[in-house]
Description:
309 residues; 25% strand; two-stranded antiparallel ribbon; ten-stranded mixed beta sheet; Spore Coat Polysaccharide Biosynthesis Protein SpsA, Chain A; 2 domains; globular; single chain; alpha/beta
Amino acid sequence: MKNYRVAAYITAYQEIDALQKTITAITKQSYPIEEIFIVDNSKNQIITNNSQENIIVDFHPENIGVAGGLKIAVSWAIQKGYDFLWLFDQDSEPDADVLEELLTNYQDLSKNQNIGIIAPAIFDINTKQEFPGSMFANYKLAPISGIDEIQNIYYCDAVITSGSLININAAKYVELPRVDLFLDAVDYAYCMNFRNKEYKIVVVKNAVMKHRLGNYSQVKDRLKKYTNTFSTFICSPSRYYYACRNHTFFETRLVQKQFLYRSIAYRIKVLLTMMERIIRYEPDFILIKLWACIVGTFDGFRGRLGKTW
Length: 309
């Protein structure tokens, strides 16, 4: 294999234990990483005594979000002359051979095609299920179906941030992540920047990473009188707001004019579905969460972006 220069990036927020697990998993990779760049969005710095020279911490107590951190990190990697930047949230644990697998497949695939991002198979720590890449079709972004039947490699339009290996030589020619998205759908929007420049996005199923996709809790369905508790994800009001806003903005701006009304109808359908699950399953702050979804969706329609919640 070629001698690639690889750095890693982690978005950190409040949880030092989760961050340390991710750092440990990165440092145990069979292919060496030169530096780890961390943007710490916590109110109080969670890494205060860093003695490791190859770990760089950029502290932002004002919280610049996933989008702000990602833009800084990609710009940093370009300036430092790295070949690849490996992106992480703070709750990810790649197997020890993941980076080597990604680079091996990249080297093979890049002989006859332009690869912008190559990513591992993501397995949700909570559900133990594989979380697939997504495709944008007509008026919505949707997960690829039938991935269990795919042997090793498949192409898609978008993958989540965590685990994605960014080709920095491609990133130089691609628009940087949008800071005004702040949180949620930042990764999908950035992926589409690569796709718009005709770079391919690849998922390698033999490379496996465990990742926590949201917070889960034991709940009851309050619309059913007799029911057992079960585990489902729960969100904060701010997360509901940014998820509704950014996906609505992202999808309605990507869509071609002939599909715009279908895209608007689809986003309203998503809003109603999300409101139903809040009423049925969320344990607290129900009215605020409902309001967050409504305001977020309509802010997405009108393009009101930034750190607005």
